[in-house]
Specification:
There is one protein chain. By secondary structure, this protein is mainly beta. It has two domains: 244 residues, Lipovitellin-phosvitin complex, beta-sheet shell regions (Roll), CATH 2.30.230; 189 residues, no CATH class. The chain is built from seven helices and 24 strands. Strand 16 and strand 17 form a beta hairpin.
């Protein structure tokens, strides 16, 4: 909302803004007042502004398209910039629905190796608040989703007035109404979000929306958010001012969550209205590169990474997060959730094969899957060729964006130390060849439950309670050279454990530095185990 106000101020000299909340609680979906407003806005869009005096315009758009990578449990760590592009486009539009964009300048930088190539429509802005049928990614990401303010959209969506915003100018007040939009059938390709409409002339001031799961043609897509903000030009035309798009693709490496994010940020200005553009100018592709003689004269200043928006590496942009939360509140969670098939479960290649003095060569396998309703399961097993024992761990869990509940059981090894001295792959080679094993395990057999809480003042909490039996282990393997020292002298014990962990994901700290914190408090009650 504040950005909307700032946009209007920059374009028109706004001097006073007053918020007038009119909550949706007093209104029903599709009531007469709401239907009249959205039908008027739909008719206004159908006219394509042809009768308003706006024949054409020319503008300049400056934007960044950034590809980022994110990984880790919970995907709480800020994504890393892999590739960043900065673009300057000349934007043209002519009534009723002709548009053209010419890329005057483009530069990019590669922070990490990648061969990503963007769809052409990611390199430009959205004009006229999308056509009646919405397509994104040249139809490879979203295809043929009806616009809420179209003839098909009026029948496909529910609407309700949720709020209003009064923008006051000297001698004039503009009343903007927020209308929530949800699909009548969330199993169909539809949008979910909000429209901000000028009450007096039914022009669209702002659009912010997500898509249902059925809208995505790429199964790897998790979410796709679009925010389109307009500002008042020449005192009467709501034209593009700021736009954001965020495309999230998810996957796993083994069962390790990985996400790729494309973020587009655009600012549009320097409008020239009714300049007399010829229809022939709009022939050919909508987004094109300028002639080389023109692009060679365009120069950027500074380094592209230094000029990126400060929050481009945020885990989730505040505006995008708001759209996501609104979408979740308007439709069933299943309409947004990406299904996940069965996958291998491992934290690294050493979960499949390792070598240590307690079990010799150990071969393992794990499987994980996410079911409907937020439920999931994970199981791993490993067999040691020298100790001739099977180790296994299983778990069931339920996850929501804010909470998680787990139940688990295991018969496995646990390290005596809290910090791993070296990678298990390196340790396996050192142990097998030279008898240099840095692990110090003891046996554990037990079960427990756990609760996760996320996003609590920027922190993630993890509480585990378990009952277990602990036992000592013996050296079973023989290295190629040298000999193994004995293992830790563990006792046979029964233990009741309560562990509280807290983690603060990496975030900006003082003087531009980044800081990540985590800690754990453990309470354990031991009793002797007389059962051998």
């Amino acid at each position: 909302m504040h950005r909307l106000v700032a946009a209007a101020w920059a374009a028109c000299g706004l001097w006073l803004v007053a918020l007038a909340p009119q909550g949706a609680r007093a209104q029903d979906w599709n009531d007469a007042r709401t239907r009249a407003l959205v039908e008027s806005a739909t008719a206004r869009r159908a006219q394509q502004l042809a009768d308003t005096g706006l024949k054409d315009y020319k503008a300049v758009a400056h934007g960044y398209v950034t590809f980022l990578a994110q990984m880790g449990e919970g995907l709480t760590e800020p994504p890393k910039v892999v590739k960043a592009d900065e673009l300057v486009n000349e934007v043209y539009w002519r009534a009723p629905n002709l548009s053209k964009q010419v890329i005057l300048g483009r530069r990019d930088t590669l922070a990490l190796p990648t061969d990503i190539a963007y769809h052409r429509d990611h390199l430009g802005i959205v004009q006229n608040n999308f056509p009646a049928i919405i397509r994104l990614g040249d139809g490879d990401e979203v295809l043929d989703v009806p616009h809420p303010l179209s003839a098909q959209g009026l029948a496909a969506y529910d609407f309700v007035i949720a709020d209003s915003l009064s923008i006051k100018y000297p001698g004039r007040t503009i009343n903007v109404v927020e209308v929530k939009v949800r699909p009548k059938d969330d199993r169909q390709p539809r949008v979910i979000g909000a429209l901000f409409i000028d009450r007096d002339d039914s022009q669209v001031v702002r659009m912010a929306f997500n898509f249902t799961r059925a809208s995505f043609r790429d199964n790897a897509l998790e979410d796709l958010f679009v925010i389109v903000e307009n500002s008042l030009v020449s005192g009467r035309f709501w034209l593009p001012h700021q736009q954001e798009i965020e495309i999230r693709r998810g996957g796993t490496w083994l069962d390790y969550p990985v996400r790729g994010i494309i973020r587009g940020r655009w600012e549009i200005g320097d409008y020239q209205v009714n300049v007399g553009l010829s229809p022939q100018f709009f022939s050919g592709p909508e987004i094109v590169l300028a002639q080389k003689a023109v692009s060679d004269t365009f120069h950027f200043t500074g380094r592209i990474l230094d000029s990126l928006p400060f929050d481009v590496r945020a885990v989730s942009d505040a505006e995008v997060r708001k759209v996501q939360e609104e979408a979740r509140s308007l439709v069933r969670a299943q309409a947004l959730r990406r299904p996940q098939a069965l996958s291998l479960a491992a934290s690294g290649t050493s979960d499949f094969a390792r070598f240590n003095r307690a079990e010799g060569l150990a071969l393992g396998l794990g499987l994980a899957s996410r079911f409907g309703g937020g439920f999931g399961a994970r199981g791993t097993a490993r067999y040691g060729t020298d100790d001739h024992e099977v180790k296994a761990a299983v778990g069931l869990d339920w996850q929501s964006p804010a909470w998680g509940v787990r139940a688990f059981a295991q018969r496995d090894f646990r390290e005596a130390g809290d910090i791993q001295e070296r990678s298990r792959a390196v340790n396996s080679i050192a142990a097998q060849e030279f008898g240099a094993d840095a692990t110090d395990p003891y046996g554990v057999q037990g079960a427990g439950v756990g609760i996760d809480a996320r996003g609590v003042q920027g922190l993630r909490f993890r509480l585990d309670a378990s009952l277990e039996r602990q036992r000592p282990l013996q050296v079973r393997a023989t290295p190629a050279t040298g000999t193994f020292p004995p293992l830790v002298a563990a006792s046979r014990l029964r233990a009741a454990r309560l562990a509280l962990g807290v983690e603060r994901p990496t975030a900006l700290a003082f003087m531009g530095s980044e800081m990540r914190m985590n800690g754990e408090l453990r309470l354990t009650r031991f009793t002797t185990d007389d059962i051998a």
